[in-house]
Amino acid sequence: MIGQTVKHYEVESPLGKGGMGVVYRARDTRLGRPVALKVLPPEFVRDDERKARFMQEARAASAVNHPAIAQVYEIDEGPEGLFIAMEFVEGRTVRAIVQANELDVLGALEIAHQVAGGLQKAHDAGIVHRDIKPENVIVTPDGHAKILDFGLAKLVEGTAGGEHDASHMETLARTQAGFVLGTLRYMSPEQARGQALDHRTDIFSLGVVLYEMVTGQLPFSGSTPLDTLHAIAFEETRPITALRPNLTPSLQRIVTRCLRKRPQDRYASAKELAADIKTVQREIESGISSRTPIATRIREQWQSWRDRPVGEWILPAAAVLAVAGILVTYVVMRRVEGFSSLIVPAIVALLLWRRFRNRRRRLGSKFGKKAAKIPGVRIVSLDGMRLTVVSDSTQARTYVRLNALLDSVNRRMFFGDPFTMVIRDTATPEDERALLSAPGVLYVREEPKAG
């Protein structure tokens, strides 16, 4: 396209190429200014309804004016396909800066602070980016961060929620592995599960970017797209202070809060995140660290408890009532002479103990029975708190359904460590025999007899 004219934009040179299209440097002949012209591939715009939703949101994003957001000038469609003309930003992406090892902690915090400010402006306008990652943040030579590609992730995701999205992402993962796998690593757990999104998905993704900027490593990564999805949804990260002991604990607290699995446990707004980042910046610059006020820690814990569904309080409440009943019975019966006064509370305590002691096994068995109904599942095994599922092929639909079952089981745990899960579709015969010989087998599919 070099030398061609798209509408009133003269294409001058290529700037880059990715899964979301090719970006060219062009010149706006009407206003005499350079622009970045992104031409989207046809496979993203064949669905008219999706394209219409995307164009509506992209036009809304173009109305958001903030120093940390690259301005969108125009969205249109020509013979070459759908194209976007946006502000041309001189500089390098955060990805390039991290790979060149040219980013110190204060620089990383400044970039995160500016990006958080831009996100807050967009969120106030009801716009969610959905694809915050190092490639979508560019830093100018004078140190200003700019967020690129507002609204483009909507074109990839389509309608949020349900197994359709996960299946769509799995299809993209096979056809455009480099782009999609790179995007997956910065997804929030709700994105990984194909659930509805709000502004807190951007806060999670920014937390991933901040983690990578200060440590040089990703918090979640797998050898396949499904391994990465599983890590995002269920695995905890290594503390940044374990990777770089010289980092301040207050920065660890920010990253941890951004990367909470449940949206309600993260920062309620990007503005609140930006304020905490600025506080850490001041601490590092002054060399004085401050502990989180106890009132703040109590408030955060209370918010976490308050946001729990009513169903999660049923068993703890029943346990408290049972213990209270035992104490009352003991106080009343202790006046009665003889050992028999302890029989009733002892029996009740024994029943409660057996009930709680076997709860892990009962929940694991319940998971196994429900997982057995999913087509393709061959073996379900439990070792401690780790569930292993062997299936014929790990499709996105299987992944979503198994993770939904795991979520349901963990919501009923109430105390202790949650179950974790490994989904395998490449188990060797030796691996399967080892699983079958272990004592924790919950389900084995009966294979049809030959002949």
Detail the topology: elements first, then pairings:
Elements: E1 5-6, E2 9-18, E3 21-28, E4 33-39, H1 48-62, E5 72-78, E6 81-87, E7 92-93, H2 94-99, H3 105-124, E8 137-139, E9 145-147, H4 152-157, H5 163-175, H6 177-184, H7 189-192, H8 200-215, H9 225-234, H10 240-243, H11 249-258, H12 270-286, H13 294-306, H14 314-333, H15 343-357, H16 359-371, E10 377-383, E11 386-391, H17 396-411, E12 420-424, H18 429-437, E13 441-444
Parallel strand pairs: 11-12
Antiparallel strand pairs: 1-2, 2-3, 3-4, 4-6, 5-6, 7-8, 8-9, 10-11, 10-13
Which keywords apply here?
4 domains, single chain, four-stranded mixed β-sheet, six-stranded antiparallel β-sheet, Transferase(Phosphotransferase), domain 1, 18 helices, Phosphorylase Kinase, domain 1, 451 residues
